[in-house]
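Bumping my old thread because nobody answered last time. Still need a sequence for this structure:
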């Protein structure tokens, strides 16, 4: 039998065998989760070796007597490359989820351009799980997307003027059991001029009032008993109005506030001591019905 015929027969037989391996490898790669699950003869190295033999055989068989060696070498190199490609692992690589923190997202949930569930109020809880949509920016929320209510009084922290109310105590819309003394809201001596520290305290009061737009408030000024009744009444009115004006400058609507001066009429401590008089000089915040 001639050299060319023998080489082609050997090559043909090996091609058939390699095709079977490649086909089997392709099916396995679609079913297996990793290349280590494939049979030994399906690995690219084995297929490459078989391809090298096939290519070398064909190259030898089809070359002239003068270039048998170079023909076999060229065919072997080409066959090895083709065999390796035929048996290459084509198992799709797993795609990492774009929003792993959300877990599995139900079908039909609206997503953004990155494939993440929409979070319209930006509170970190996606809309499809958010039980309190529309939470103001920057407000801390729980796992359900609802603003925190640390004392569980029904008034969320970002609106609560009395955030540490004891459990079970009934509160008003401000989150307070009764009127609340605005601690450290003080004035310059014998005037209605707010101190810098008082303005700092009122900034927080104003922020909570702005976030609680359906509530109206009464701002009530009080003095100790020193001085005449009329003088104290006027001074307390001016101080209450000073607080209301400052809150208005921080965004609280003026029609939500009233300023009332009670002078020395409603002491909460004895005017016989300095400590008592200090307690009586105060501004209170109450719900205005």
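Sorry it took so long. Here it is:
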């Amino acid at each position: 039998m001639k050299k060319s015929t023998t080489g082609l027969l050997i090559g043909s037989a090996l091609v058939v065998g390699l095709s079977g391996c490649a086909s089997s490898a392709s099916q396995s790669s679609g079913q297996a989760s990793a290349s280590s699950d494939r049979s030994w003869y399906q690995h690219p190295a084995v297929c490459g070796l078989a391809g090298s033999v096939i290519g070398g055989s064909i190259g030898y068989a089809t070359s002239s007597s003068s270039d048998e060696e170079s023909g076999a070498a060229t065919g072997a190199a080409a066959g090895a490359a083709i065999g390796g490609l035929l048996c290459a692992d084509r198992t799709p690589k797993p795609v990492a989820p774009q929003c792993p923190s959300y877990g599995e997202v139900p079908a039909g949930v609206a997503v953004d351009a990155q494939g993440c569930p929409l979070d319209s109020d930006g509170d970190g809880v996606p809309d499809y799980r958010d039980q309190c949509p529309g939470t103001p920016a920057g407000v801390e929320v729980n796992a359900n997307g609802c603003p925190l209510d640390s004392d569980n009084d029904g008034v969320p922290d970002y609106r609560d003027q009395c955030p540490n109310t004891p459990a079970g105590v009934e509160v008003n819309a401000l989150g307070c059991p009764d009127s609340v003394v605005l601690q450290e809201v003080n004035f310059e001596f014998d005037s209605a001029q707010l101190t810098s520290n008082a303005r700092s305290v009122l900034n927080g009061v104003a922020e909570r009032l702005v976030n609680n737009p359906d509530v109206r408030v009464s701002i009530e000024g009080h003095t100790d008993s020193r001085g005449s009744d009329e003088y104290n009444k006027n001074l307390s009115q001016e101080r209450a109005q000073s607080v209301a004006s400052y809150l208005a400058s921080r965004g609280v609507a003026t029609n939500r506030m009233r300023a009332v001066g009670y002078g020395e009429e409603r002491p909460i401590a004895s005017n016989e001591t300095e400590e008592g008089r200090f307690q009586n000089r105060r501004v209170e915040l109450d719900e205005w019905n």
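The longest helix spans residues 3-31. Let me know if any region looks off to you.
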